[in-house]
Amino acid sequence: MGDRGASPLCRSLSKYVLVFLFLALSGFIFLLRNIHTVETWNCQTISAIYQLQSRIQSSVVQENLPAFRRNSTFCPHVGQKPSPEDELEERYLLDSITWPGPPAGPAPPGLRQTSDPVHSLFTILPTKAGREWHLGEQLEVLVQMHDFQGRPKHYGGDFLLARLHSPELGAGVAGLVEDHRNGFYSALFPLLWVGSARVEVTLVHPSEAVAVLRRLREKRADRVFFKSLFRLGFLSETTVCNMCLPSHRQPLCNFTDLSTGEPWYCYKPKMLSCDTRISHAKGGYLKHLITNTEALLFQSDVNIKVQIHPSGSDRIFVLPQKDKGEEEGGSLKPEDIQSAASGYYYNSSWRPLDGAAMRQFREPSAITQCLSNKVIYMYGDSTVRQWFEYLVTIVPELKEFNLYSPKNVGPFLAVDSKHNILLNYRCHGPPIRFSTVVSSELRYVSNELDGLAGGPNTVVVLSIWAHFSTFPVDVYIRRLRHIRRAVVRLMDRAPGTLVVIRSANLQALDQEASLYNSDWYSLQLDAVLKTMFKGLNVLMVDAWQMSLAHHLPHALHPPPPIIRNMIDMLLSFICPENKKSQE
């Protein structure tokens, strides 16, 4: 019967309702298109709209994460096209870190066929009775890997760490591990102190797990995702960002750095323009990246950082050098050593082996004296921010200036006006997995270096590694190349500038940490870093060996005794022994 029974009044009201809805919709569209005038509207009304919008966005961002193609490398087209020389260097660097993998097969092996640290063994060579070891010699240890069924492995690719240490003497040195690619490995140690020494060999990952890590690095560089907040007035949107994004999903905002060509993109907000971006932040970690079978390769206390037992004794006693008697202090002089080790601990103090004199700065007054009239710039991740925090904590006259920066993000500034000391910290540009960073504070290290005047009273400290572990190595190579060129330019215009680089360090691992920040990723980045800056007039703090040689557990942010030795090394670079009398 339709509307025949409706009164004229009801039909009239229905028309007014339609008109009212039309006017309301038109008003909302007008509101969006004239956002600048919205700021003068009633704050409570706009706040309600904003809160509703924020709740919707928080549930949508996670669902709209980009689906990267798994059968291709990570965005090889992004960034500036490398020169032929750059391509040649990149090929050399990638070849230098090539890692052997398990033999190819129709299906990946089950857990029972993978490396088992419990069944594996190491032996100190030679095994003959009465063997003596003397200061300055090299100790060799043979490692044989077995699977969970006790059968010998016949291929390499396991990630092993080796350390020779003496808790009684506060001594320790990292070993060099050689993969013979047949299930056998050699660990080589320089004998650097007189007295007891104990061998420790650790399986970090079996070769089958390394193969999974390699695949994730090359195919799933999106497993850490980022986001940016865009805001204009009371309207805001949050979108996903990364070094590369699939453009077929929605339009992109291009935030590629104009100076370096370093790429960075965000999905364009639906209602706001790209120039309304106000912040950058870590979005989160993608889950369910590996199969249930692969997950068995990453089990704490089973096959992640588990010690391998010795076949026989794991201890030796080092005698003085033959016909030379015991060296003073029971250790060898650096000039008498040829070793892959960059240094070692003795009496709980780090001793570099490159001939540099290591001083100890136990009193805050000694640190203040060394840093007087110095400007120190620290650029990088949280591992160098830890140095900033250590100095501010231990030197009472260094007062941190309140820049109202987010905690753990920065930038940070500390000043000692009496002794004319200025200490700066700033995080490197994206990818940076910090909490919210204001967009204007996202600075690329190479651009910051180009803005420095430099000079004999300027110290630059760099640490760039931890946030690149989820990306293919060529991304890291490109970033370091820009920084290296900026370092060269800085030294050309200000030759007295001191540049110190802090390398990667070991950290605690479980399954989740392994998939994003494994020591295997860090090891490969560390090798690239040291090679790319070799031959330049820069100084290196080898955090990798300093964390490996120490008896304390591995941690992304090493404990204070290790940091103290790193700071001592930094200060020894700034105030070397031959200038002590001039200070």
Structure description:
The N terminus is likely disordered. It is globular, with a radius of gyration of 29 Å. Helix 8 packs across helix 14 and helix 10 packs parallel to helix 12. It has 3 domains: 97 residues, no CATH class; 137 residues, Immunoglobulin-like, CATH 2.60.40; 227 residues, Rossmann fold, CATH 3.40.50.1110. Strands 1, 2, 3, 4, 5, 6, 7, 8, 14 and 15 form a 10-stranded mixed β-sheet that branches. Strands 19-20-21-18-23-24-25 form a 7-stranded mixed β-sheet, with helices on one face. The protein has a 6-stranded antiparallel β-sheet with strand order 11-12-10-9-13-22, with helices on one face. The chain is 29% helix and 23% strand. The chain is α+β, with helices and mostly antiparallel strands and 583 residues long.
